[in-house]
Amino acid sequence: MPPQVVMLQMANAYRVSQAIHVAAKLGIADLLTDGAKSISTLAEATQTHPQSLYRLLRSLASMGIFAETETGDFEMTPRGATLQSGGSGSLRDYAIVAGEQWHWQTWGDVLYSVKTGKPAFDHVYGMEFLDYFAQNPDLASTFDRSMVSLLETIDTSILANYDFSDAGTIVEIGIPGGYGNLLARILTANPVLRGVFFDLAPGLELAKTLLTEQGVYDRCQLVEGEPFSSLPKGGDLYILKNFIHDFNDQDAGRVLKHCCEAMDDTAKLLVVEMVIPPGNAPALGKIVDIEALIMSSGGYERTEAQYRSLFAAAGLTVINVISSRSPFSIIEAVCA
């Protein structure tokens, strides 16, 4: 296509995001689970204007999100199915968050961050986003659910691309929205392994419930703490996912150093993050890095070279960087 057409598509991408947001919020994918529906049926169920809803769904169908039949009904597609509620692979909550007012208003002030290096969120709302969520629990709840769906995607990529069969004792370091999901899946797939879940008290309570439901709690130990102070010793494999990118080099380095201090000579550390590829290669991480710029102070997505340098400063040596079919990579390291 001519460069002007490509640029027009890129410049209008936010409109696509908002259209997906509306379909997710209305629960269109849930309504199509059991088969195609007429626009009048969908409009009645969602309390929307039929012709306006049709125009929205026609637009999304042109991108493979739902499909319009010859009779004018709409039916599910594999892409549309990702907007169904719950279940493995659901991105409904993530799509809702992407189009929420607080989120796109922050992106609307990205110029401020580019000029100052400071978070646009703080500039727009006069406070950090964690304080904002504390004052808006409903938004915080949706955001937490969106992180759960993201973490599930990460977990799937880890399980598909790393062999845990001889890992012995695995220590998963808890993060918001995690609550032992990955540890439970690893232990379920490997009945001889044992696990340690490390988190603050609220996270441990949620993890206990999840690990019990998955039938692996009898092989787990829950340890209270936070990674900026210390980590439990004795693990054969430590896992830290979607965490390091939230912090500057100094703070991230502290956590990695505590990992090394807890590890013995044979232990390994897995850090799961988006690794920015070199050159002009397209990557979701390059856009997510702008999200880090506007939402928080200090965090950023790193290249492999930056991760290797960060690990070395903490006394760790990177021995492997494993890519996956997801945007995330597994960085495997040992103490130097």
UniProtKB/TrEMBL annotation:
Q: Which GO terms describe its biological process?
A: methylation
Q: Which residues form the O-methyltransferase C-terminal domain?
A: 108-316
O-methyltransferase dimerisation domain mapped to chain residues:
9-81
GO molecular function list: O-methyltransferase activity; protein dimerization activity
Q: Which UniProt keywords apply?
A: Methyltransferase, S-adenosyl-L-methionine, Transferase
- Please provide an example of a Pfam family that matches this protein in its UniProt record: Dimerisation
Q: Which PROSITE patterns does the UniProt record give? A: SAM_OMT_II
Superkingdom of the source species: Bacteria
Q: Which residues form the active site?
A: 245
* PANTHER family the UniProt entry points to: O-METHYLTRANSFERASE CICE, PUTATIVE (AFU_ORTHOLOGUE AFUA_4G14580)-RELATED
Name the UniProt record assigns to this protein: Methyltransferase
Supply the source organism for this entry: Phormidesmis priestleyi ULC007
